[in-house]
Amino acid sequence: MAMWIQAQQLQGDALHQMQALYGQHFPIEVRHYLAQWIESQLWDSVEVDSPAEEAKAKRLLDNLVAELQRKAQLQGGEDGFLLKIKLGHYANQLKSTYDRCPLELVRCIKHILRSEQRLVQEATNATSGSGGQAMDTLSQRHQQINQAFEELRLATQETENELRKLQHSQEYFIIQYQENLRIQAQLTSLSSLPPAERTQRETTLQSKRTTVEAWLTREASTLQKYRLDLSEQHQKTLTLLRKQQTLILDEELIQWKRRQQLAGNGGPHEGGLDVLQSWCEKLADLIWQNRQQIRRCEHLTQQLPLPGPMEELLTKLNADITDIISALVTSTFIIEKQPPQVLKTQTKFAATVRLLVGGKLNVHMNPPQVKAVIVSEQQAKALLKNESTQSESSGEILNNNCVMEYHQATGTLTAHFRNMSLKRIKRSDRRGAESVTEEKFTVLFESQFSVGGNELVFHVKTLSLPVVVIVHGSQDNNATATVLWDNAFAEPGRVPFIVPDKVMWSQLCEALDMKYKAEMHSGRGLSEDNLVFLAQKAFTSSSNNPEDFRNMTISWAQFNRESLPGRNFTFWQWLDGVVELMKKHLKPHWNDGAILGFVNKQQAQDMLMSKPNGTFLLRFSDSEIGGITIAWVAENPNKPGERLVWNLLPYTTKDFSIRSLADRISDLNHLLYLYPDRPKDEVFAKYYTPPLSKAVDGYVKPQIKQVVPEFATQNPEPSGGATSFMDQTPSPSVTHPNNFGVYPTILSVSFLSESST
């Protein structure tokens, strides 16, 4: 209910925007009386574009109707009588409206709640001044845009008033012109009258004609001046419209698209399109009003031709306004939900296309069809240069046609491609060392529709973000590298799909940190020490000073084409292996700060040797993709008094699918403190698997445990039974030139002690 309380405090334009969210599709009274209930429901858990979610949406609708009916029944007394009737009516109305399409109700309420949240946030930032400089700048920019719209509205209203005056003046001129023609006809007919009468009548008519003609001459000049002045005013309005449209399309919309691209690397969500759509709809409305005014001016000019440049001026104005609306329509045909950028053949995928001005221009009255085709980088270049008259394809997409749907509750016109699948792909000849996972494609969405009763016909196209096509899961990590590099370093307005071959190391650090945080779903990203470790790996350097890497550049080849020295994998393949391991099995431990990870073997040695025996840390393996090892300090079992740092053979995803990290650490009794000095149970106990219960039906339950034979000490079982260790073979002999050793772990099986029947 807190959101509704704040929404009621909105003022001015924000209040009008909030009120405009409501109507017959969802009455504001329902929002008011069910505020707490509405805000407590999990609307965001329903995917409105998935038919499978319809049952969940239906339950929400039924619950909403029941809650409204309950609220109605609680109303009593004289004051509550009308409200009881009204709420009951709304319950029936919502049931009737959404019973066959409950997902539309969810879409509507999600739109309302998000819009309210945005309006409240903007109002809070504007009044508190605590939103930071970036938010202040955003608010100022939005304020400037809204002020410009007000100027355009006033200018359009002024030209409308002037046009009406011109029309009135011209109509009166035509009446007077017809009067002059009537006088002329009367003079012509005087020849049939007697001379005396003719002379008297002729003098009167001549005088009258002279007066009217003089007035017509003056008025014609005035009308022409009115027309020229109005034409000049329209030209000024069109200049303002172009400026406003450039600001919205070339700055605001481009920034939204850039945020959408960075979101592909794990950046913040690009944000909704509601504000952009409202601006684009205002533009469309103003452009259309001015276009209609110019058309009426043309009609007036044709109705009463006068000497002068008006015809040429109006032709230019008409061409200019058509260019402006064409740019608006073609630029606002956008991809709201991008197809996956790593696209596997024979796999279902989805995308959503939206026309921001579709509702305002009534495009939905004759819903257009959108087609999706996959094209190569070269074909995309040709399309943008208008060198390709018809869309070529580099593959075959199934279910690639979709009709745009208008959602009245949100005012959006969208095409939801829910079940596309790439059946086949046609690859081009590769350049040099380029691999198939470096080849970029894009999904082209195109449609055709008319506005204004077929006055204008538009053929619109939009390209998706670059897509890398794979045929096997083993290609995923290299394809992800191509996508990450492109998303991070693409410049707005580039030729498809050019990206720099080299970037500053600091730029790559930002991209990797963004990706890592997103994969971990955590605010704990890559620290400066982590990034120094990665720089050492990328540049084969031993420096620990971050400043040594700040001005260095890293090439694409260093990132994911050339193997690291002495390894058979690239820098990215190693890091991606870490990310996948963490994401699947170790995310909670990273977020708890339990995993240092980015520490090499020598650093681990230096850190642990100053700590008590039994202190351990977790670090990522240098030699194995997606491996993590435990390093600990302990006395050498074979040489009393000598302390060594030991390293277990790295664990991988396969190991953790058998037994979790926390349980493995619990198994190893010689591990006592997580570096620097935290008791291990304090950190990991909440993740331990609970002890097995007693056997039932006479069966003994096995329990897998991990041992390092040289350090194994038996623990009493919680059940009180004895533990049998199996396969406790001695570890291979190792040498310790640097005071650290590598030991494999052995999984043992313990049995619950119980008699079988």
UniProtKB/TrEMBL annotation:
It is found in: Cytoplasm; Nucleus. Residues 135-169 form a coiled coil. InterPro entries: p53-like_TF_DNA-bd_sf, SH2, SH2_dom_sf, STAT, STAT5_CC, STAT_linker, STAT_N_sf, STAT_TF_alpha. One of its GO terms (biological process) is cell surface receptor signaling pathway. SUPFAM superfamilies: p53-like transcription factors, SH2 domain, STAT, Transcription factor STAT-4 N-domain. PROSITE patterns: SH2. Its main location: cytoplasm. Keywords: Activator, Coiled coil, Cytoplasm, DNA-binding, Nucleus, Phosphoprotein, SH2 domain, Transcription, Transcription regulation. This is Signal transducer and activator of transcription. The gene is LOC114437191.
